[in-house]
Amino acid sequence: LSPIVELNVGGELYTTTLSTLKKHPGSKLAEMFTGQPKLRTDSEGRFFIDRPGTYFKYILEYLRSNQVPTQCIQDVYKEALFYNIEPLIKQLEDSPQIFGELMARKQFLARVPSYSENIELMIRIARAEAVASRRSSVIVCVVRTEEDAARCRDALNSLDMDKTSVVKFGPWKAAPSISDLLDCIQMDVEAKGYKISFQPHIAEKGFRFKSHDFFYKFLFTWW
Predict the structure, then answer these.
(1) How many CB atoms lie within 10 A of CB 65?
(2) What share of the chain is helix, strand, coil (3-state, %, to 5)?
């Protein structure tokens, strides 16, 4: 291989040296250019990598100067994982953005039973109710403790509506509060491209009592 390498990364063009690309021998990026390159070439003969080219400049800058990026941290982290550049991965995981996401938020959500499945269930219910409507709503029951879970079951038993349309989160054993979980739900649904808001749900009909602290209405706005 020539010591000077031209790359086409997702349509973005880069020129660098072979030694830069092979700086970390155990990385996937180094393996791409070890021995016979395991890459296709574009019409101009440049090596083609089918990844987002926008963030490759941060990967390249790190390989050149050990400079850890301070922009687009989440996206650069995904690319560092793909290219398996372990020193960069470890340094990014120490950043507040990645540390907070991996060690705090995700560790909390791992303690909330069926969290990801419930997010998908919410979206399915909202989409089913969106026919010829600008908005659709989903009722969510969030219970922090086993005692609240029992109260939630009692309230659901008094519902006139279809109980399967109420999505239940919890209980969990971790420090974050109900408001923290509600923020997580909104954050993760919005990350999928939906416009969503929530408010406490006060039922005038269907419940034995007028309101409960653990019922919330999530409103999806479609247009």
Answers:
(1) 9
(2) 45, 20, 35
